[in-house]
Design goal:
1510 residues, alpha+beta, 5-stranded mixed β-sheet, 21% strand
């Protein structure tokens, strides 16, 4: 496996005539989205021996839109220069060595479609655009020339390699012209013959026309001037030109004659599996004329094959197929670009880019494919390593394909298989089956869940149950009881769980995917008898042992459930925004208890790690709420999208974030270790290599997957401030979204959904593209041809708003024009020539019978004739045919004859009204006839009902009226008048239908008003309305109104939760008050505490106390906050407040009280909190004892540390008040140890000075003479007190100036010893180098070294620190830590060697290299290793067992209560003795040396022991 970084790049851009190029020496570049990726090919690529010789070496970043053209300078000496053109309107010239822009121009006004660097003129770059404008740009003199040859769309252009002024241009309509740029673009030849787009132009590499023996174009008659055949003379000047067109032909043209001499028609090749009918239609015909073989021409073909044509036999079509022998080596889709490359070892290669998203390299000598570089056409959403097939990495991509990358293949670095069948949508989630080979579950953005067998070619099985929205995550877990899985016997051992954007988690039976999936919310409700609304789930994760399931929710909570019935055992209220990712620690570390660690990331930038050992093992009756994390990892500046624990280390985590970086953490020490900044977009997924501890893979919305090495990163933490702004700029140079003229959607999308569907309009073609072979018809393909291939870029990370792009339809539809019914009514508007004010005359009403009236205003003769016809009709009963015909023609006479004729007249008049757009007049005429029902029927059919007509409907009967009102309501809905439609439904008592109509069109306010007015109060519809509206308001961030909805639905719990969602102090306070009013005490208390903690960060002490007052159960917390306030005030008075300059609003009682701190505290408790009686103290004590905080680390934030210390100090003071001295001592010790663990010496000394001003003697008296249970704790407390005094004394020896607390802290941090990190459960992390536990103070000149009596007394008390049993215990702990570290290192080495063996085909040249790369770097090698003798496994195991046995024998008192590092104290005393001779008694020095000799065997202390003990 290669120990080098790798890149899976974005796909080369489609439908560009020249967007890849290569230069001799082995540098290849291709345009992908808005940048150009560079690939080094050949021996210089530095690839691992045995693997294909190429490597992606960088990217040219700078364009803001799709790059449409790319060309190198092919002049020796300037192969490092290249040019790009882009849809952003610029042409940029680059230096590939520095990857920087040399210069640029923005001369084009229209989209640039063609670009070429002249092979004859060193500094000439020619470009053409879609409107036919050509610009010649001379780089060295920064000069340009504008040429406008034809008003047609340029598709490609190529400069002549033989004549510096000739350029050939191909147009969209099939015309080819050759121009002379020295003569202002004069057209030398216009070559007609093609009748469709020109895709490629290639000049013959040899000048002159004798390289091909061609006289005439086949099929064409020789010219016959005057009927005589003229013999052709061989032409010496001129040159041949080849063009490839969409019309499926290649034509060779003679430049001397300006006409075609050969036409090659593309063959239809029989492909295995038959030809897809659409493949013939879609074609891109690109050409390459090899330099050293002028009689041969390479072209692309219909399905992605490459052909080598033999031009010597022009009379018959002769070609050779590339890679004819090896099936499956060819491209599977059309090829866009071909470029030749000569490597340093003079191999002639050809590189091709294709719609199948592969870049292939061909050997021109053999026509075989040498290697393939796969690429991605969409966001890399998901990464998953197979637990069975080691090294198999599945990648879920937004281009509708799953990639499976065999990362350990020795012969091929990019051994990637594509799976597209049955996917047809962005792949947003992946999960391998834990035990079954090749079984891969996938989820897509349209809610589909499926199972692939990656070992077969079968299409995937698809679950019949779809999610309504994007699938966020998948997990395999044990089956939980549900109806769909049947009895015990026929159950799979593992089922598939999927979590979707609508908030549901479904359980799918992998044996019966066509059966219905089970919504696990049903079981959660039944088991835990939950009445309130369940939260919207956004993440699911099973613990490795399959017994515990964690669900992350949209409100930021995480719920922990236990199998089999999903009993809720605890809720973690930590994140307050949508949870994106949850990851459980692996089970195979050196410390099994670490498998209870669970890391989680949300739309907030902070990662929390929780230790759930205690909760899971205690199996509580009712669910516990956790509000304190075990560890907090802060540093990212945007949301967290993915987390992965290292399988090789204990407690090492990698996180991916929208801030554009991936971060490796030592989670146990809360320490950032390394930061990867290679991506140019927001990271979406990350995975740790299962084989190499130094290697991580990450994917992002920049269409890239990077493999990177932890050890090679130069940064250790995410960028803050300016750096993050630079990264921001880097990301903003990504493509911008094109503004779409679409109606704005009303509801905003939840942010996790945004991650999937908002910000990725990958190329429009991309969704059309290789979702499936040949899925686009010709006409669509043509439309694709010039569509920008870009994704609609990445919304700026600054705004953090969900971005809603209109969905991209599969297959480009023509825009549909919807003609609204209303349009017809608007046709006849009065002409607006005169201002309204002048039209004072009233408009005459329109005539009801205009046609009859007009017929009565005809000439006199006609009117006379009317009279005669009428007389005949009236007089004779039997009418002859002539008279009947006359009556028919003169329909207006119906007014004077019988009713039937009148009806006919009305019919004619009515038709006239309709034709003129006056349906209302037609309706009135019909009413006159008395045909009301007919009027209504016609109006309904034509969608022309009016209020008037509906008002008259009752005349025709009750049922007709009901039918008319319903029809009118439907019509109003079509016209978007939903509220009016609902009112009409109410008029016929259809209340439920009216409410449903309003609800379905999001008129919730109106729907609720109607329902409340017309339905019974207990009707479930009402509750449903409140809940639906509440959910939508909540999604849109209108939390207060949503809370009112939940209150309306009598769901007060949800109302309080939604109010708290915003997370600011005011919202939390209101939510707490609300919860308190409705009797949700537990929720009220947790919200009030959160509110107080928010206010605490802003140093608003008054507000914090007010918030805690809301709930009686927080009385204890009020005391803690009170003590913290007094301590902060005390610190401020002593100017120690850590440089916090923010103003604080203190309570009035915090001022004006004098005396020692503990007395001030009790005085305030009495006056402000009326705490007097022992019973009250006892109650407060019990309240606070139930709260447990995790131990501190070097990285614990200072404010949090102070709060935790004050919690312990409050317990101590309360215990003293109820005379429980044992508990007081233990609490004091906890506070001291907390400050010691965090490396905060100043705080430790403050605790000592405030609470133990006179030392520990008074506590000794209180504990009594008898052996109290707290004696060991007291001994530890006393030891820490002496330890603090010892250091202060030592530093005072070397310091004439007052103490600087910062220096004190820094120096103390250096002393953080191994023993300490042991207490932090972190055997494997690197110790914070206590190799030099103290900076050795030099003697300041002229300082009197005589000691005061007090100092001598103090030094004598240091004997208490020389505890033999503690020294022995600490030594055993150090041994265990070192052995575990060595074992872990050995396991890593073993895995690596096994892996090398398993992948070696024959002798593996890499082995020695890999060995050399990582020499055994165990931080603490033991004994023999000093002499470079590796320890054997049995010996290590024996040491470990012995040390563990020794630890087990120690009394509990030693194990329970921490003690200062004994050897460290010995070293400090010996230093003092050497600096100030005579200060330390001989006996004490001897004792210290003995302890060092006896227990200083571990590597940490060896050097110091040698110093003092020799």
């Amino acid at each position: 496996m290669g120990q080098e970084p790798r890149t899976l790049p974005p796909s080369p851009n489609w439908y560009c005539a020249r967007c890849s190029d290569a230069v001799p020496g082995g540098l290849f570049g291709f345009a992908a989205r808005t940048s150009v990726f560079l690939v080094r090919v050949g021996p210089g690529a530095g690839a691992i021996p045995g693997t294909p010789p190429f490597r992606v070496i960088g990217e040219l970043v700078g364009h803001t839109e799709r790059v449409s053209g790319f060309t190198f300078s092919h002049h020796p000496g300037q192969y490092n220069l290249c040019a790009t053109s882009s849809d952003d309107g610029t042409v940029k010239i680059w230096d590939v060595e520095t990857k920087a822009v040399v210069t640029e121009h923005a001369l084009h006004q229209h989209t640039i479609s063609a670009l070429h660097w002249s092979p004859r003129v060193k500094d000439l770059i020619v470009s053409g655009d879609e409107k036919g404008v050509v610009f010649c740009y001379w780089l060295n003199r920064n000069d340009s020339q504008h040429l406008f040859i034809e008003p047609r769309t340029i598709f490609c252009l190529t400069c002549s390699p033989h004549h510096e002024d000739l350029v050939a241009i191909g147009y969209k309509d099939g015309i080819v012209v050759i121009i002379d740029i020295s003569k202002k673009g004069e057209v030398i030849h216009r070559l007609r013959g093609h009748d469709d787009e020109i895709h490629s132009i290639a000049w013959c590499p040899l000048p002159g026309e004798d390289c091909l023996s061609i006289n005439q174009e086949e099929n064409s008659e020789p010219e016959l001037p005057n009927g005589k055949v003229i013999a052709q003379t061989p032409v010496t000047k001129g040159c041949y030109l080849a063009t490839g067109s969409k019309d499926q032909t290649i034509r060779i043209w003679s430049c001397s004659r300006g006409r075609g001499v050969m036409t090659l028609k593309l063959p239809f090749l029989k492909r295995r599996g038959g030809v897809d009918p659409t493949i013939k239609e879609r074609l891109w015909l690109t050409l390459h004329w090899p330099k050293d073989q002028p009689t041969q021409l390479v072209s692309s073909c219909f399905g992605g094959e490459l052909l080598l044509w033999d031009l010597t036999q022009s009379w018959r079509r002769k070609y050779t197929l590339f890679s004819a022998s090896a099936e499956g080596q060819n491209h599977s889709r059309i090829v866009f670009n071909l470029c030749p490359l000569q490597t340093e070892d003079d191999k002639q290669l050809l590189l091709s880019t294709s719609m199948d998203r592969d870049v292939k390299c061909w050997d021109m000598a053999t026509l075989e494919c040498c290697w393939t570089l796969p690429s991605l056409g969409g966001f890399a959403y998901s990464l998953a390593f197979s637990p069975v097939d080691t090294g198999c990495l599945a990648i879920g991509v937004g281009d509708g394909m799953i990639r499976v990358w065999n990362t350990i293949s020795i012969k091929n670095n990019y051994d990637v298989k594509n799976f597209w069948q049955g996917v047809k949508s962005k792949v947003t989630a992946l999960c391998w089956h834990p035990t079954k080979e090749g079984c891969l579950a996938f989820g897509t953005d349209d809610g589909k869940v499926g199972l692939y067998d990656t070992y077969s070619n079968k299409p995937p099985q698809i679950s019949s149950t779809y999610h309504k929205k994007t699938v966020y995550s998948l997990a395999w877990g044990p089956p939980i009881p549900s109806l769909s899985l049947g009895g015990e016997g026929d159950r799979p051992s593992l089922t598939l769980y999927s979590c979707g954007g609508e908030g549901l988690v479904l359980q799918h039976n992998p044996w019966k995917l066509n059966g219905e999936a089970f919504d696990i919310n049903k079981l959660i409700r039944d088991t835990n008898s939950i009445k309130y609304k369940l939260p919207v789930h956004t993440e699911i994760s099973w613990k490795a042992d399959g017994k515990i399931m964690a669900l992350g929710n949209e409100d930021g909570s995480i719920e922990i459930f236990q199998i089999p019935n999903l009993k809720l055992i605890c809720t973690i209220q930590q994140h307050h925004k949508l949870v994106n990712t949850i990851s459980w620690h692996h089970e195979h570390g050196s410390q099994p208890e670490l498998s209870y660690l669970m890391a989680s990331g949300s739309n907030n930038a902070v990662i929390y790690v929780h230790n759930l050992k205690a909760v899971i093992e205690s199996n509580p009756e009712s669910p516990v709420t956790i509000t304190e994390p075990y560890r907090t990892l802060s540093g990212h500046t945007a949301k967290i999208t993915s987390l992965a624990w290292s399988p090789h280390h204990d407690g090492r985590l990698v996180s991916a974030s929208y801030d554009g970086t991936a971060q490796v953490w030592d989670a146990l020490q809360e320490e950032p270790l390394c930061n990867f900044r290679g991506h140019r977009g927001r990271l979406l997924c990350v995975a740790w290599s299962p084989l190499d501890p130094d290697c991580i893979y990450s994917g992002a919305d920049d269409f890239c997957v990077y493999k990177w090495l932890v050890s090679m990163q130069e940064h250790s933490r995410p960028p803050q401030g300016k750096k993050s702004i630079e990264l921001e700029k880097k990301r903003l140079s990504q493509p911008k979204p094109k503004p779409k003229k679409k109606k704005k959607l009303t509801s905003r999308v939840s942010v996790k959904q945004e991650l999937y569907d908002g910000n990725e309009e990958e190329s429009i073609r991309e969704s059309v593209g290789p979702v499936e072979n040949g899925s686009v018809s010709d006409q669509e393909g043509e439309e694709e041809a010039r569509e920008p291939e870009l994704p609609c870029g990445v919304a700026s990370v600054v705004s953090r708003e969900p971005v809603i792009c209109p969905p991209v339809s599969l297959g480009l539809e023509k825009p549909r024009v919807i003609v609204n019914n209303k349009v017809t009514l608007l046709k006849k508007e009065p002409p607006k020539d005169k201002p309204e004010a002048l039209v004072i005359k009233k408009r005459k009403a329109r005539s009801m019978l205009p046609l009859s009236t007009s017929l009565d205003h005809r000439s006199k003769e006609e009117l006379h004739q009317d009279c005669l016809v009428l007389a005949t009709a009236k007089h004779f009963k039997e009418l002859n045919e002539d008279v009947s015909a006359d009556l028919e023609e003169r329909f207006h006479l119906g007014l004077f004859t019988d009713r039937a004729t009148l009806y006919r007249m009305m019919e004619v008049e009515g038709k006239g009204h309709l034709e003129n757009g006056h349906p209302e007049l037609y309706h009135q005429l019909m009413l006159w006839k008395g045909d009301l029902k007919g009027v209504l029927q016609t109006a309904v059919e034509r969608g022309e009902l009016t209020d008037n007509l509906v008002a008259m409907a009752p005349v025709a009967g009750y049922h007709v009226w009901l039918w008319a009102v319903e029809a009118f309501a439907k019509q109003l809905c079509f016209q978007d008048q939903y509220v009016k439609a609902a009112s009409h439904l109410l008029s016929i008592h259809k209340v439920y239908e009216a409410v449903e109509l309003l609800k379905s069109h999001h008129f919730y306010r109106e729907a609720i008003a109607v329902a409340k007015a017309r339905l019974r109060p207990e009707d479930p519809i009402l509750k449903d309305l409140y809940l639906s509206w509440g959910a939508i308001l909540e999604k849109d961030g209108h939390y207060a109104v949503a809370a009112k909805c939940y209150l309306g639905a009598a769901s007060a719990y949800d109302a309080a939760k939604v109010l708290a969602k915003k997370g600011d102090a005011a919202s939390l306070k209101t939510a707490a008050e609300l919860a308190s009013i409705v009797g949700e005490d537990e929720l009220s208390a947790s919200l009030a505490l959160r509110c107080a903690q928010e206010l605490l960060l802003a140093r608003n002490w008054v507000g914090a106390q007010e918030a805690l007052q809301l709930h009686g159960s927080l009385q204890g917390q009020r005391l803690v906050f009170c003590l913290l306030e007094l301590l902060s005030k005390h610190r401020e008075e002593r100017q120690l407040s850590e440089g916090e300059s923010s103003p604080s609003s203190y309570n009035t009682w915090s001022t004006g009280i004098a005396g020692p701190l503990p007395e001030r505290v009790t005085a305030v408790w009495r006056s402000a909190f009326s705490l007097d009686t022992p019973e009250q103290y006892q109650a407060a004590l019990q309240q606070l004892q139930t709260i447990k905080y995790p131990s501190a680390t070097n990285n614990t934030p200072f404010k949090q540390l102070l709060l935790h210390i004050c919690h312990d100090l409050t317990l101590a003071v309360l215990s003293q008040q109820v005379a429980s001295w044992d508990k007081a001592v233990e609490a004091l010790l906890r506070a001291v140890v907390r400050s010691y663990d965090s490396g905060n010496f100043t705080v430790m000394q403050e605790v000592h000075s405030a609470f133990l001003p006179e030392g520990c003697d008074h506590l000794r008296d209180k504990l009594g003479v008898h052996q109290s249970p707290a004696t060991p704790a007291f001994k530890s407390l006393e030891a820490f007190f002496i330890y603090g005094r010892l250091y202060e004394f030592w530093w005072s020896l070397s310091r004439p100036c007052p103490e600087s607390s910062v220096w004190v802290r820094a120096a103390h941090r250096r002393t953080t010893s191994v023993e300490q990190s042991q207490r932090l459960d972190d055997a494997s992390s690197e110790e914070t180098d206590p190799q030099a536990p103290q900076p050795e103070p030099s003697k300041p000149p002229g300082l009197d070294m005589r000691l005061t009596e007090e100092s001598k007394r103090m030094l004598n008390t240091c004997k208490e620190l020389f505890s033999e049993k503690h020294a022995s215990f600490q030594n055993s702990q150090r041994t265990v830590a070192e052995v575990q570290e060595t074992l872990a290192e050995m396991i890593r080495r073993h895995q690596k060697s096994q892996f090398c063996k398993s992948t070696a085909n024959g002798p593996d040249k890499n082995d020695p290299e890999q060995e050399a790369e990582q020499p055994l770097s165990s931080p603490q090698s033991l004994g023999k290793e000093e002499k470079n003798e590796p320890l054997s496994l049995p010996e290590l195991t024996k040491r470990l067992t012995e040390a563990n046995e020794r630890i087990a024998k120690f009394p509990e008192s030693v194990k329970t209560w921490p003690f200062p590092d004994v050897l460290e104290c010995c070293l400090v005393l010996l230093h003092i003795g050497s600096q100030c001779p005579g200060s330390v008694t001989q006996e004490m020095q001897q004792q210290a040396q003995e302890l060092l000799q006896k227990y200083g065997g571990t590597k940490v202390y060896q050097r110091h022991c040698q110093t003092f003990c020799t």
